[in-house]
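Blackboard transcription, Thursday session:
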Amino acid sequence: MQTTSDEVLIARIAGGDRLAMQVLFARHHVRVYRFVLRLVRNEATAEDLISEVFLDVWRQAGKFEGRSAVSTWMLSIARFKALSALRRRPEQELDEDAAEQIEDHSDDPEVALAKKDKAAVLRKALSKLSAEHREIVDLVYYHEKSVEEVAGIVGIPEATVKTRMFYARKKLSEILKEQGIDRGWP
Amino acid sequence: MNTKNKEAHSDIEELLPWHAAGTLSRRDTQRVEEALARDPELARRFAMVREELGETILLNETLGAPSGHAMEKLFAKIDAEPARKQATSLNLSARVTEFFAGFSPRTLAYAGSAAALAILLQAGIIASVMIKEKSADGYETASAPSTDPGVGAFTLIRFAPQASSDDITKFLEANKLQVAAGPMSGGLYKVRVAVTGLPKAELARIVKKLQEDKVVGFIATTE
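(Written on the board underneath:)
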């Protein structure tokens, strides 16, 4: 079965087709939400932001030029919205410790158990990365964006994308080492 | 790559995350695979990358999803937006995109005759023309008369394969024409020549005049 491409949906949305908007929303809203949530670290804010992101898609669909994938375009909008929200509400910005607590649902016994579980420790370490590093790791690994696409979303040169990802991974290794897991790299 | 020095890294090593995610170009994929085959240390590091990839996916998947209210909020906001009428030009571009999407790679491979390609290119050109028109105009008002596809006098036109975007734009503007539908079978477009019905003789006169333009490959009257 052939599904309607995102580009076709965008063209229909540009013409005011609400059903196409529903399809596009159903197709992408979870990933957009997760991307935003990892940046703002607040579920209510993330949920508010995705309706803003898709409202922008509705408004701007006629200007979409197809130079990037629709999902890449939406992540760019989402990133802008998330960063704007964080700037608007500096009092709600969480320090690193508080932020880590939000993503770490483990109580002490679970943490102890997690330390025996390399995969769980790795996930915990991924949560401890800086926002800049979390963002690039998510875009590459979870959202499957190419170097060029990440450069477009984040607004940095492709060479910087590669080095930023490299240093994000290096930092991850350092965090793991602090947790007692030496990967032998870097 | 000198893998004895653990701090050293090459451009190949920087590409490992994208190789794991399968988002590298064919050329870079080949470069990385060759490097992995000859460098056991790089292969070990690639195994780490794969672990990171798997756990990043798992971490994101455990983040849950927004509530059903998210869609309700969105459509409440959309409903509060100024009404916009379905724009003919962008409907056309949607049809053109669907037209492309309708071809499977195999179909395209077998059906890639020069004539078909000319029609495809034509469709792309006309879509770009119509999208440009839309961008320039912004929102159309509900009272805009030209958006009703059933009203007016029409011709069927197939544009000449060599006609450029500029040629077609100038032709449509100079003759006050509007593409109402298409592309149809044979690369034909239904083009409105007047916003009201015309006598047959008058329509024939217009068709004859338009036929002389080099942009037009074929033209005929239609209902």
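Lecturer's comment: Residues 95-107 of chain A have pLDDT under 50 and may be disordered.
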